[in-house]
Amino acid sequence: MPRGVKKENLPSKVCVTCERPFTWRKVWEKCWDEVQCCSDRCKNERKRRLQLANRELRTPEAPDADCNAHVSSDAAPPSDSKAVASTQHDLREAAACFEDTPCSFKEEGALRSPLL
């Protein structure tokens, strides 16, 4: 009596990368439920696509016109108290514009705002 399972009776799945069907392999015996790609090439291609998509999500979009409206062209430090108050107000407005910006820097394990 022959042992084992006939190849036509093996379970199969569709690869999430190339969308082609592939069948069960002995190396996937313990992790068949987690297998999503048919080969290392498809697995690496899927990882590459996910990394590119994550980079696109992380890149900041063009700043709003409102955020640039308060920025002055001169970079000279203010000399009187009115100018100092105006600059502080401008800085608060700029911080409010970028408040929703995701933190990307780490300092001693804690997330740090890119504005600090």
From TrEMBL:
Q: Name one Pfam family in it.
A: DUF2256
Q: Where is the composition biased (Low complexity)?
A: 69-86
Which stretches of sequence are listed as region Disordered?
62-88
Task: Supply the name of the protein.
Answer: DUF2256 domain-containing protein
